[in-house]
């Protein structure tokens, strides 16, 4: 039986039932005959009626449309067989081929022409499935560029349990422990010093060598799977991968290979022995052994070489893993797997990305904001003093803003050094960062060609300088809020958002206070308050009397709405000026 996948982009909405039989897009062009950048993979080579088989279509290049079916491997031109279940309904949809009700969902296609690099679906084997089934795919890179009926793996009916050489046991107790790490076995642990025997939040990988065999233990809290990989560098791709997938309470332990940042291709060879697993309290544990050399499966790495270790986890559905939502734990250095036991250290946050975040924070939340404050509110200060021939405020402003541009440029380079290319999974953050970098470079360029202070065109520079500077600062702050959620930084959420928000609010309040002070609003308010207090005290003193009875008739003859100045004047004429004044000042001081 064959399972075909067709990418028909003639219909951007993926309603390509007309292409079900031939799997040929109606684009009036011929299919591409060069090597295809796309591959089909499955998670099992054998099946029984009713089984769910995960199918993944991925590639090193983007594609826009697709159509997936399953067909009899001995009759690739025959009808589609079985039915599909969607993993991501936003990018895939089920089709009914040949309008036969029993074949509802017998094909899967795209929902739009949005670019993608991977699609995953679940194929359910029917009760009347033929002995062998093959998956086929027609992939459309763009309207007239497509590959027709790309052949996928062939699966056959039979026992889906592991081959006899891979004896699997269910571990009744938790035998994994960090005791012996660095002595009898090598360990990679996160958090550092945790013990999987007592800590359910502990990610644990250990391995030890005995003769020509290496035994591995893997444990971690996960909803769907835990996995580790042997890698020649600190990047996913070209990795020897091992998966422990929880499928409704049963764990399948599989060896796989990742050719790139795509779905792992499960090995059809049985290279794992002494397999065991356990699921308890949300923790998946598995163990297995494999030979140092596996000539029967050449994609497996030799364990006599040194590798970086990756530990990842995530969700799974129908035994199909989804992309990990958290940055993998990566060992800080590579190690020979069969080498002396040691305790490895690792991190989920690359050092370069930490530098990137720290420098951006210093640039915009400290240097940039302080430089703007100097230019906006400190020009009148130190009027007679200069620094290297220029006013102090200008030199400090120029120094801090130059530092801001320099730190931004250095920090801007780090993500590209780390990833080696543009990040397609970082959301809007890299776009905002590029905008900030462009605006930051515009500032010194404009400053270098600014008109003289008495020029008639100076106002143009002033407005541009002010506008570009404020835009850069606002976009930088917005970018930081998106940046602190990036996987590569691994910052504790949500309190990091609260801290950044509090700092932004503090900066806004500070600028508001300085703005009010600049326009003498605070000074005027202070004088008003002092006058009100002085009036109240003067009136209270006058009402209390000065101790001389002859003053009372004078005051009583005064109209009710006479001001406190009148009282003060009357008292002054009676020789009470210094007494009243001194008393009022004493009250104000107290």
Write the layout of secondary structure elements.
Blueprint: E1 2-6, E2 38-42, E3 46-47, E4 52-63, E5 65-72, E6 83-86, E7 92-96, E8 104-110, E9 116-124, E10 132-142, E11 145-157, E12 168-170, E13 186-190, E14 203-210, E15 213-221, E16 225-231, E17 239-247, E18 250-258, E19 265-266, E20 273-280, E21 283-291, E22 306-314, E23 316-317, E24 320-321, E25 329-331, E26 335-336, E27 343-344, E28 346-347, H1 351-377, E29 386-387, E30 390-391, H2 392-419, H3 429-448, H4 458-483, H5 495-518, H6 521-544, H7 551-556, H8 564-573, H9 577-589
Parallel strand pairs: 3-11, 12-20, 13-27
Antiparallel strand pairs: 1-5, 2-4, 4-9, 5-8, 5-10, 6-9, 7-8, 10-11, 13-14, 14-15, 15-21, 16-17, 16-22, 17-18, 18-19, 20-21, 22-25, 22-26, 23-24, 25-28, 29-30
Helix pairs in contact: 1-2, 1-4, 1-5, 2-3, 3-4, 6-9
For this entry, give a set of tags:
disordered N terminus; single chain; alpha+beta; eight-stranded antiparallel β-sheet; seven-stranded mixed β-sheet; 590 residues
Report on this model:
It is found in: Membrane. Belongs to the FRRS1 family. Residues 1-171 form the Reelin domain. The protein has 590 residues and is an alpha+beta fold. It has helices spanning 351-377, 392-419, 429-448, 458-483, 495-518, 521-544, 551-556, 564-573, 577-589; strands at 2-6, 38-42, 46-47, 52-63, 65-72, 83-86, 92-96, 104-110, 116-124, 132-142, 145-157, 168-170, 186-190, 203-210, 213-221, 225-231, 239-247, 250-258, 265-266, 273-280, 283-291, 306-314, 316-317, 320-321, 329-331, 335-336, 343-344, 346-347, 386-387, 390-391. Strands 16, 17, 18, 19, 22, 25, 26 and 28 form an eight-stranded antiparallel sheet that branches. Strands 1, 3, 5, 7, 8, 10 and 11 form a seven-stranded mixed sheet that branches. A hairpin with a 2-residue loop joins strand 10 (132-142) and strand 11 (145-157). Helix 1 runs antiparallel to helix 2, helix 2 packs antiparallel against helix 3 and helix 6 (521-544) crosses helix 9.
């Amino acid at each position: 039986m064959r399972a075909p996948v067709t990418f028909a982009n003639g219909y951007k909405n993926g309603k390509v039932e007309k292409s079900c039989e031939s799997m040929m897009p109606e684009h009036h062009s011929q299919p591409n005959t060069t090597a295809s950048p796309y591959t089909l993979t499955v998670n099992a080579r054998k099946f029984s009626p009713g089984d769910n088989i995960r199918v993944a279509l991925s590639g090193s290049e983007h594609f826009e449309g697709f159509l997936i079916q399953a067909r009899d491997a001995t009759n690739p031109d025959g009808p589609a067989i079985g039915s599909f279940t969607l993993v991501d309904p936003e990018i895939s949809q089920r089709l009914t081929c040949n309008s036969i009700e029993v074949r509802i969902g017998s094909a899967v296609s795209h929902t739009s022409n949005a670019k993608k690099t991977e699609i995953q679906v679940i194929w359910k084997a029917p009760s009347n499935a033929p002995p062998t089934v093959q998956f086929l795919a027609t992939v459309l890179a763009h309207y007239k560029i497509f590959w027709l009926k790309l052949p996928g793996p062939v699966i056959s009916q039979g026992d889906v349990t592991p081959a006899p050489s891979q004896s699997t046991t269910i571990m009744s107790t938790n035998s994994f422990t960090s005791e012996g790490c660095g002595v009898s076995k090598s360990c990679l642990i996160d958090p550092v010093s945790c013990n999987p025997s007592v800590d359910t939040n502990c990610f644990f990988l250990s391995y030890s060598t005995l003769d020509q065999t290496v035994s591995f233990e893997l444990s971690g809290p996960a909803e769907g799977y835990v996995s580790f990989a042997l890698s020649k560098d600190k990047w996913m791709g070209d990795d020897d991968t091992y998966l422990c997938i929880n499928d409704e309470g049963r764990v399948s332990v599989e060896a796989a290979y990742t050719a790139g940042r795509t779905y792992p291709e499960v090995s059809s060879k049985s290279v794992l022995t002494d397999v065991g697993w356990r699921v308890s309290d949300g923790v998946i544990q598995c163990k297995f052994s494999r030979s140092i050399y596996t000539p029967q499966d050449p994609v497996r790495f030799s364990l006599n070489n040194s590798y970086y270790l990756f530990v990842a986890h995530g969700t799974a559905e129908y035994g199909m893993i989804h992309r990990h939502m958290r940055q993998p734990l990566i060992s800080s250095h590579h190690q020979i797997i069969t080498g002396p036991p040691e305790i490895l250290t690792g991190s989920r946050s690359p050092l370069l990305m930490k530098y990137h975040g720290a420098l951006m924070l210093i640039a915009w939340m400290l240097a940039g904001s302080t430089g703007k404050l100097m230019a906006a509110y400190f020009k009148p200060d130190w009027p007679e003093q200069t620094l290297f021939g220029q006013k102090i405020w200008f030199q400090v402003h120029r120094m801090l803003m130059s530092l801001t541009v320099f730190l931004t440029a250095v920090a801007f380079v780090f993500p590209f050094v780390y990833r080696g290319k543009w990040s397609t999974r970082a959301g809007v953050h890299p776009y905002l960062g590029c905008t900030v970098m462009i605006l930051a470079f515009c500032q010194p360029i404009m400053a270098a060609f600014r008109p003289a202070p008495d020029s008639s065109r100076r106002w143009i520079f002033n407005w541009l300088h002010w506008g570009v500077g404020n835009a850069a600062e606002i976009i930088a702050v917005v970018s930081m809020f998106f940046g602190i959620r990036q996987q590569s930084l691994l910052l504790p959420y949500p309190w990091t958002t609260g801290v950044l928000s509090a700092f932004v609010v503090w900066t806004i309040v500070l600028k508001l206070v300085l703005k009010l002070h600049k326009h003498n609003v605070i000074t005027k308010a202070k004088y008003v308050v002092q006058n009100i207090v002085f009036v109240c005290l003067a009136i209270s003193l006058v009402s209390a009397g000065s101790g001389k009875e002859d003053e009372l008739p004078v005051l009583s003859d005064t109209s009710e709405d006479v001001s406190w100045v009148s009282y003060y004047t009357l008292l002054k004429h009676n020789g009470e000026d210094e007494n009243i004044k001194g008393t009022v000042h004493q009250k104000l001081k107290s």
